[in-house]
Structure formats: C-alpha cells, structure tokens
Design brief:
Layout: E1 3-8, E2 11-12, E3 19-20, E4 23-28, E5 31-35, H1 44-52, E6 62-64, H2 70-73, E7 83-85, E8 89-92, E9 95-98, E10 105-107, E11 110-114, E12 123-129, E13 132-136, H3 155-166, E14 171-175
C-alpha cells in the first residue's frame, strides 16, 4: 500500500492576492510522487516536509499537475529527475510521451483519473493506502466548497466527476486544491 502525506495545506486568502496550492506526496515502494507543487509562501513549505521524510528533490520520480494553472505548477522544476504528468502526456528531459491520463498507473498504488470540470484538462490522483483511497483533486477547493466553483469551465462535468469520485469504493479522504484534506460526508458539496 502507498503512503500519503500532505506537504503543504493550500489556501485562498479573502483579498484574493495570496493563494497556495495543497501539495501532496506519495511513497509507493521506490516511486516517489509530488502532487501539485504550485504556489506556496516559500519553497521551504514543500522542501522541508520532504526532507523530514528523508526525500531529496532529486529522489522524486514523478510530479503530477492536476491542471495547468500556475498556482498548481509553479514549483515543478524543483524536481529535476521526475517525470511530469498532466492530462495528456508525461514529460522528462526532452521526452514527451502522449497517453490518456484516465486510468494511467504511475505505480501499483497510484492512478490518474480524468476529472474535467474546473478546467477541461483536470486530472485527479487516486492513491490506495491502508486506510482506503485518498484522492488529490481540484474538484473541490476545500471541504466547505464552494459548492459552485466560480472558475469552473464546465460545472456539469465538475458535478458529475465529484459524484464519480465520491462513489469510489473505499474512499477515505479527499485532498482538495486549496485546503486541508477531509473525509467526505453528507455535507460534502456534490
């Protein structure tokens, strides 16, 4: 089973001038994955928790970008050896390998899901842990919502993909784009 850690909880401040991406980390055997290494108050918010897990930036094997907004991608270059995954390919050095994101397995415990809604290119990362599935996604900004994503390119697709994620057997936690992880319940915006 994979082990999952939140490196940095995301946020959106009310003035709208400061935003941080929730940054996740998965260890599945020798596969070390950083998810959404975007905007944070300082790079130390990503690198210090990794160091506490005995992981150096050059050890990271894969980086997943949920979508191409800078608040989720800005620090991808911190990981010079990693394959970088997005909605239609993975990239490493001068290699560009096209593939569908939906169902792509980074490792036995880490799978990508195509989950458009916030943008047409959104993907989520499903991680099989001892406690059940953890899903890193921008289908939710935070546990409380907003129920209607004000920046969603396709609200119908967003709601359909929320329902799809919530129906995953063994879903334990959702790691939203801009807030702490949460256990879904009846109050979770659908």
């Amino acid at each position: 089973m994979a082990e999952f850690h939140v490196l940095s909880d995301g946020y959106v401040l009310e003035d709208g001038e400061r935003v941080g991406s929730t940054v996740g980390f998965v260890r599945d055997g020798g596969v070390l994955v950083v998810i959404d290494p975007g905007m944070v108050a300082s790079r130390a918010a990503i690198l210090d928790p990794l160091a506490a897990l005995d992981v150096r930036p050059e050890d990271v094997t894969d980086v997943v970008l949920s979508h191409h907004h800078p608040d989720h991608t800005l620090n991808a270059a911190l990981f010079p050896s990693a394959r970088v995954h997005d909605h239609w390919a993975w990239y490493q050095d001068d290699r560009w390998i096209e593939r569908e994101a939906g169902g792509f397995e980074i490792s036995g415990g880490v799978r990508l899901l195509a989950t458009p809604g916030h943008t047409a290119q959104d993907i989520s990362t499903a991680i099989r842990t001892e406690d059940g599935f953890v899903v890193c996604t921008h289908l939710w900004w935070m546990a409380s919502g907003p129920a209607e994503d004000p920046l969603a390119e396709d609200a119908d697709a967003l709601h359909a993909n929320r329902a799809r994620v919530l129906a995953l057997p063994g879903l334990a936690r959702i790691v939203p784009g801009h807030g702490p992880s949460f256990s879904p319940d009846a109050r979770t915006p659908r």
